[in-house]
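Now for our target.
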Amino acid sequence: MKILVCIKQVPASSQVQVDPVTGVLIRDSNNTKMNPYDLYALETALRFKETEGAVITVISMGPPSAAAALEEALWMGADEAILLTDRKFGGADVVATSYTISSGIKKQGDFDLIICGKQTTDGDTAQVGPEIAECLHIPHMSYVDKIIEVKEKSLVVSVSMDKTTEKWELSYPCLITVDKGIYTPRLPSYKRSLALKDYKVRLITFADLEDQNESHYGLKGSPTQVERMFPPQKNTDKELWKGTNPDLAEQMIKKMKDLKML
């Protein structure tokens, strides 16, 4: 079985800056980590490797510094790593990101299963995984919380919905996104880090992709246009009112009207 795991390098802190011109995050390579949900996706793939003899390839899109997240995945047990990196990919929304990653997957060749984390902690859209599947024209299922059965030509999974738990069977090749309750991620292996110290992450750039239309990638390929993005402003202003209950109620109503809440 050939498994691809999509991972992303995200800010390790909530204290991030935003480019006022492009509206995208300014990523500090010294303050990053692997997206926490992707740890569960990788652990799911590693369980397949232990029981089914799978070969795991981790793939990511990002700047050259994102190779650190891929290296961590290798130390945890992945077999190969691919980084899609090019300035032309920068500033992509979920549509352009999904298209770029799916293009890189096509470049990689045949596969049986793609596993993604439910969402990323910097975007929280939970859309990239399903959109990758749509670009590849393969069946997919989100919010998988349990692998029920691995068959020769299909996968049976449990899906946690808002009010129900459902059972679905998907034919290979397919894509699933997993939630954090599926398995407990393991720690990276120090021995593997030493054994793989000379491993070079495979790089795929725009020039390597079959589709050479720049309007499909990065900011040019992003139909979502951010008008303005900014960190929330903290406001600790307060007013102290004194008086009887009727007086305080009257002041509250007047304040709410001044703020156009009423």
Summary: The mean pLDDT is 90. Helices lie at 36-52, 67-76, 94-108, 128-136, 190-195, 245-258. The CA atoms of residues 98 and 128 lie 5 Å apart. The first helix runs from residue 36 to 52.
